[in-house]
């Protein structure tokens, strides 16, 4: 049984589908999670990516500790992360004592993945290096970074909240983001071979950035 998700870090969609599957008692070995490749998205709220379980039944079924951990695990690049999450969730529901077994392989792996994502977030925050590039006559700080996991959107939202008055452009192999002082815009990803620290001149980069389809 294939279960589609709208994008690679669709934690809200995962929680919704997982709750539906649990209600139908669909075992994890019969489920194949399919996350769509990263796509350009338009203007969004800064907290748009945070999981929100609105349904009361869903909140009762899914432990809050699992929800918090899954918000990090879905950002991991392991292609089996959704399968592992649903299997662990299924077991937590049908094996109530499992939450006390800290040595359990599934739960231990999820904790390791969540910790790896936390480290990647902190590393990206610490290592981002912006340099001004003239775009339409205005110097805009531009940075390129290749995170180990899907953390670029989360870090971009953090940057926007940290100093809303500062405009910037953040380019990654997953997604490009631009903060215009009021909203977070998106454009296609930038490959490592195209990063601003390559041999291209600032004038060339200004033309590239100016031509990007920011939405």
Class derived from helix and strand content: alpha/beta
- Say what oligomer this is: single chain
Distance between the termini: 35 Å
Shape: elongated
Note the total helix count: 7
Summarize the helix and strand pattern as letters: EHEHHHHEEHEEEH
Strand content: 5-15%
Number of discrete domains:
2
How many extended strands?
7
How much helix, percentage-wise, in residues?
A: 40-55%
Rg, nearest Å: 19 Å
- Spatial arrangement of strands, main beta sheet: 3-4-5-6-7
The chain-level mean pLDDT equals: 85
**Biggest sheet details:** 5 strands, mixed
Residue runs with pLDDT of under 50 for 5 or more positions: 39-58
Structure notes:
With 215 residues, this protein is of the alpha/beta class. The chain has two domains: 2-123, no CATH class; 128-211. Helices cover 40% and strands 15% of the residues. The protein is built from seven helices and seven strands; from the N terminus they run βαβααααββαβββα. It has helices at 11-23, 56-61, 64-73, 81-94, 105-127, 152-162, 202-211, and strands at 2-5, 32-35, 131-135, 138-144, 168-171, 176-179, 184-187. The strands form two sheets. A five-stranded mixed sheet has the order 3-4-5-6-7, with helices on both faces. The chain has a two-stranded parallel sheet with strand order 1-2. α3 crosses α5. The chain is elongated. The two termini are 35 Å apart.
């Amino acid at each position: 049984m294939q279960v589609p998700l709208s994008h690679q870090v669709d934690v809200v969609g995962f929680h919704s589908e997982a709750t539906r599957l649990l209600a139908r008692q669909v075992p994890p070995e019969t489920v194949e999670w399919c996350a769509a490749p990263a796509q350009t998205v338009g203007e969004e709220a800064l907290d748009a990516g945070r999981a929100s379980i609105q349904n009361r039944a869903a909140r009762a079924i899914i432990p809050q500790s699992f929800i918090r951990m899954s918000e990090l695990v879905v950002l991991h690049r392991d292609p089996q992360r959704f399968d592992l999450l649903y299997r662990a969730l299924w077991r937590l529901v049908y094996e109530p004592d499992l939450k006390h077994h800290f040595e359990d392989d599934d739960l231990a792996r999820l904790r390791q993945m969540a910790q790896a994502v936390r480290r990647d977030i902190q590393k990206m925050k610490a290592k981002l290096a912006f340099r001004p590039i003239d775009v339409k006559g205005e110097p805009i700080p531009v940075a390129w970074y290749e995170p180990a996991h899907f953390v670029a959107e989360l870090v971009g939202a953090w940057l926007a909240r940290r100093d809303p008055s500062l405009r910037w452009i953040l380019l990654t192999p997953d997604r490009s983001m631009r903060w215009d002082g009021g909203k977070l815009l998106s454009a296609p990803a930038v490959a490592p071979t195209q990063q601003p620290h390559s041999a291209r001149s600032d004038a060339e980069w200004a033309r590239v950035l100016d031509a990007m389809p920011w939405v």
